[in-house]
Design brief:
Blueprint: E1 2-8, E2 12-17, H1 22-28, E3 46-49, E4 54-56, E5 68-72
Parallel strand pairs: 1-5
Antiparallel strand pairs: 1-2, 3-4, 3-5
Length: 79
């Protein structure tokens, strides 16, 4: 099932498949999400979903059962 993934604030949209890793989807869209540990511990890759939930992109995938996914990228001043 295809999911439309929109990356904000750049308003870049790309089609993805449910279960596809978010970092791969972002890279295909030309979006760079900073990474550190790649295990979700350092939170360098933290992004925010439309509902305000913070997730680590390095350990997250496109969810099943969704037609659209909005991801808000923000810069962490500590990185």
């Amino acid at each position: 099932m295809s999911v439309q993934v929109q990356f904000l604030p750049d308003n870049v949209t790309v089609e993805a498949e449910a279960g596809e890793p978010l970092l791969e989807v972002a890279a295909r869209a030309g979006i760079t999400i900073p990474t550190g540990c790649l295990m979700g511990s350092c939170h360098a890759c933290e992004v925010e979903l439309a509902d305000g939930t913070a997730i680590c992109a390095c350990i997250s995938a496109v969810p099943t059962g969704e037609k659209e996914l909005q991801i808000n990228l923000y810069g962490d001043p500590l990185w």
